[in-house]
């Protein structure tokens, strides 16, 4: 398995991983994007994200298959400056427990260090105890005092028309 930067041609398989993650997170109908969105937003003139993939092509007798992905993008912290947000770290269910997630995670952290970023931040579901234990073992801090806040499209419309 090889960890590498994703290409535009990887986006159909990355989208399948995103859909698998949505099912894992009990949100099977939540994915609204398609391959064209990923290609346009990740590989245009001003890409909005960087994606790393775990590719089995380098394994002996393996077919070329994307079995994991990590999607990141830059953010700006008023306290720290330029930071990185890890949007998703996904490993195919059939491939979990093989070190793929850790390899992708390490690639993200190396990317942040190479770009002199001050922080990497991400969200984790409170019931995903395996991921929480892994992150804590890696030295990450779980911010228990903070809450993730979202305003979806309908709520935004309602608020602005209030």
UniProtKB/TrEMBL annotation:
Q: Tell me which UniProt keywords the record has, alphabetically.
A: Acyltransferase, Transferase
Any keyword Transferase?
Answer: yes
Q: Does the keyword Acyltransferase apply?
A: yes
Q: From which domain of life does this come?
A: Bacteria
Q: Where is the N-acetyltransferase domain?
A: 1-161
Xref: CDD domains:
NAT_SF
Q: Name one GO molecular function term.
A: N-acetyltransferase activity
The record's InterPro entries line, in alphabetical order, gives: Acyl_CoA_acyltransferase (IPR016181), Diverse_Substrate_AcTransf (IPR051016), GNAT_dom (IPR000182)
Family in the record: Belongs to the acetyltransferase family.
List, alphabetically, the PANTHER family matched. Answer: DIAMINE N-ACETYLTRANSFERASE (PTHR10545), GH14572P-RELATED (PTHR10545:SF29)
Record-given protein name: GNAT family N-acetyltransferase
Task: Give the originating organism.
Answer: Aequorivita vitellina
């Amino acid at each position: 398995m090889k960890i590498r930067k994703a290409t535009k041609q990887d986006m159909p398989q990355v989208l399948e991983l995103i859909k698998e993650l949505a099912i894992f997170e009990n949100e099977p109908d939540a994915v609204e994007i398609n391959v064209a969105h990923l290609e346009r937003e990740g590989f245009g003139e001003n890409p909005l994200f960087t994606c790393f993939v775990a590719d089995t092509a380098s394994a002996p007798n393996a077919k070329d298959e994307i079995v994991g992905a990590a999607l990141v993008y830059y953010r700006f912290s008023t306290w720290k400056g330029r930071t990185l947000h890890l949007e998703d770290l996904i490993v195919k269910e059939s491939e979990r427990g093989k070190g793929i997630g850790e390899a992708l995670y390490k690639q993200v952290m190396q990317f942040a260090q190479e770009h002199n970023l001050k922080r990497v931040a991400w969200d984790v579901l409170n019931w995903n105890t395996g991921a929480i234990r892994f992150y804590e073992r890696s030295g990450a801090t779980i911010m228990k005092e903070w809450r993730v806040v979202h305003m979806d499209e309908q709520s935004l419309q309602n608020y602005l028309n209030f």
